[in-house]
């Protein structure tokens, strides 16, 4: 990032939150993942009488844990995910206990992609993926309103096109 002599860069939380619909999207994802083991266990428990208790018990435990997680974690994730784009870089902050700050300088961005899976489309959300040469991988901003994501991808494409490449 271009910095004048004597200037320091201060790491601060990015300004933007995700779209509120991301909470519902994460909940739906979690409930679907919970259903994958619970439904077969419950069906087998209903059909196989000698093993009913040993099949329905883990189904009930998994269903309760999955539901509790689907209720609590997405709210927590929503409060801890932040993002921001400036003329110099893309900033993403995720995590609470293990915070991860990702900063992608505009001069290092190689591609900008927008993805909308079936569940994201249902919630009118999208994910913007910013790919750099970093060994850590791409910077992803999930849970954006689909129009905000499209506008962001267009803005990033314009900024990176107008930013000279990093010679280092």
UniProtKB/TrEMBL annotation:
Organism (species): Streptomyces pakalii
Transmembrane portions of the chain: 30-48, 54-78
PANTHER family: TRANSMEMBRANE PROTEIN-RELATED (PTHR34473:SF3), UPF0699 TRANSMEMBRANE PROTEIN YDBS (PTHR34473)
Name used for this protein in its record: PH domain-containing protein
High-level lineage: Bacteria, Bacillati, Actinomycetota, Actinomycetes, Kitasatosporales
InterPro entries: YdbS-like_PH
Keywords carried by this UniProt record: Membrane, Transmembrane, Transmembrane helix
Domain YdbS-like PH intervals: 79-155
């Amino acid at each position: 990032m271009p910095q004048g002599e004597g200037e320091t860069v201060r790491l601060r939380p990015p300004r933007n939150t995700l779209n509120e619909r991301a909470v519902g999207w994460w909940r739906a994802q979690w409930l679907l993942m919970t259903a994958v083991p619970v439904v077969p266990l419950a069906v087998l428990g209903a059909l196989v009488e000698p093993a009913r208790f040993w099949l329905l018990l883990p189904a009930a435990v998994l269903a309760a844990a999955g539901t509790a997680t689907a209720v609590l974690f997405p709210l927590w994730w929503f409060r801890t995910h932040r993002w921001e784009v400036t003329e110099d870089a893309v900033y993403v902050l995720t995590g609470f206990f293990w915070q991860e700050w990702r900063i992608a300088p505009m001069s290092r961005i190689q591609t900008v992609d927008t993805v909308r899976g079936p569940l994201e489309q249902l919630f009118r959300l999208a994910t913007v993926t910013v790919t750099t040469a970093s060994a850590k991988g791409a910077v992803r901003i999930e849970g954006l309103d689909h129009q905000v994501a499209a506008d962001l991808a267009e803005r990033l494409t314009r900024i990176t096109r107008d930013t000279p490449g990093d010679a280092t």
